Amino acid sequence: MIENNVKNLLKNLTLTNPFGERVTLVAAVKLQSPDDINAAIAAGITDIGDNHVQEFRDKFDEIRGEPKRHFIGRLQTNKVKYLVEKVDLYHSVDRLNLAQVLSEKSEKAEVISNVLLQINIGNEESKGGFSLDEIDAAYAIIRALPAIKVTGLMAMLPDTDDKKLLSSLAEKMRQKYDYFRERDENFTHLSMGMSGDYELCISAGSNMIRLGTAIFGNRNYK
Ligand SMILES: *Cc1c(COP(=O)(O)O)cnc(C)c1O
Question: CB neighbours of 194 closer than 8 A, spacing ≥ 6?
Answer without folding.
Answer: 28, 156, 157, 209, 210, 211, 212, 213
